[in-house]
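User: Last request for today: this protein with magnesium ion, please.
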Amino acid sequence: MSRIRLLPEILASQVAAGEVVERPASVVKELIENSIDAGANKIETLIRRGGISLIRVVDDGGGMDRDDALLSLERHATSKIRTAADLAAIGTLGFRGEALPSIASVSRFRLTTREPNALAGTEIVVAGGRIETVRDGGEAAGTQIEVRSLFYNLPARRKFLRSENTESRNVEHQFYLQATGHPAIAFSLVRDDRIVVQVPATPTLRDRIRDLHGAELIDQLLHLPVPNGADAIRITGLIGRAGVSRKTRTQQLVFVNGRAIESPVITSALREGYHTALMRGQFPVTFLFVELKPTSVDVNVHPAKREVRFCDPSAVHEAIVGAVRATLEGNRTTWQAQFRAPDSTATPTPASSPALLPPTHDLRGAALPSPPTGEQARWPAPSRGDSLELSDPAIESSIGLSTRPSPSRDEKPSASHEFQIIGVLNRLYVLMENSDGLVLVDQHAAHERILFEELRRRMEQQGVPSQRLLLAQTFDLGPRDAEWVERNLETLQKMGIGIEAFGRKTFKIDSLPAFLHVSDAHQFMRAVIDGLRNASASASPVRLGEDMIAKTVCRHAVKANDPLRFPEVEKLFRDLLACELPYCCPHGRPTMIQISLAELEKKFGRKV
Ligand code: ADP
Ligand code: MG
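Assistant: Here's the final one, the structure of the complex with magnesium ion:
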């Protein structure tokens, strides 16, 4: 006796629904996408009890006639593709013809729809996949879909739903995605009779983000550069400034041809684009739009259409890395203008310049020794002789800090100083005043950034100068470590580590980067291998070198608590402003924080 049977239509729809309709948020996603595909200018969404008891989506799009309305509830019925060629070049959000029948098979479903020029519309009521009523109806032109009692006929699915609050949050997230992706459409979301979001149609993404997330977020975002008309891959949108990040990926929004997606290719490209501007474990804030020919991307790879496959993933990767880098670095001019350094040649002695006059009291109120005037002026008086200071000749000559002409020195001297140094807080934060208010500089982070960029430049050019060890050291490595060292020998040498194979598993080190003060070369190598091997399994040599610098530089930059002399603070600041990415240290921590006068006024209750 044969055992294989064709499933009844309704059961087949319920099986399909298992993939498409996971929870209320997936219903909202499918319905809003249909409304967008129908050319709506306005989409209203309403949910009750997390969408479990009711979801209603109303649009003013093209609507359907009676035949189409009935057909839309059949499986594999779609107006969006007809041929295999269409499937290879999808320009709409939907294409499978599966959402409506799936949703209708697991809920009490009602559809009313009217085409703009039709006198009468159609109303169809379905329960658990069975059509119960078809009659004339339909109010305004467009389509209205109500989904009640989701999974009422599938108790097992219903059990998997989370609390109403969690389901509501999921719906809201989905709603934000759709509303962000389509600024030209007006959206509203009502939750349990309360308006959660209502945003008007707008021509710009910026306005939409402001309307959805507030003006404060907008201030933290940068526009990606306008793409070249000839680009095959167009990258647009807004991304967070260096240092702006989140603990989760919820604000890392990515759209490919208008569709919100999750993509490992794009996630890694963003990570690489931000590289040293991102703290460990943090995610960038992005509203990233990738547009490419529909034939260059396959959207038919995930049941909920949440993922895509690119024909040329490395081209997409490269385009995104380039756009992000250009944006973060391009922001430098504005930033420099805000924190303009005083011109070094015009720097008067402290006594003659009120702007640069050192304070007579430190921030705790204790009197500081009055500084002598002239070049030798030390401010504040250093208290520890052994500290590694910026002017340490060993460092400067080894990495060439003092010989590199700082670009900011070539700039025109500014007539007036844009900031005044007020003092140093806790021996770590340099306090300054600029036209906007208070600026705090983390001297350690700032120095790390300067050293990092300097060393990277060196590595890319002639290599980091190394210093011979008195005694060359040999040591053995396990097979995996040995393989890693072999593979990265060139990068290690460029980093100033004189290492070579000396037998099968034995290596010899005879020199180390000059700026390092390491006594045990073997131990140092161990630390380098442990720190980098896992992180850099697939990284490029440049990236590996950057990681190596970031990890070694940190420990050798000015330590917090190292007192800096007054001219050093100035130099530190000027060098920082000349960096490619001055806003943050190589580990993504900010180098500077601005506290505006407006913020202070608010805090002091002068302004509400
Ligand atoms: P798909 O979107 O993949 O085509 P659906 O099951 O979501 O499949 O929808 C089936 C068809 O119903 C669509 O192709 C479209 O023609 C029609 N349709 C669905 N929703 C709407 C709507 N809001 N307005 C107009 N037509 C719609
Ligand atoms: Mg659809």
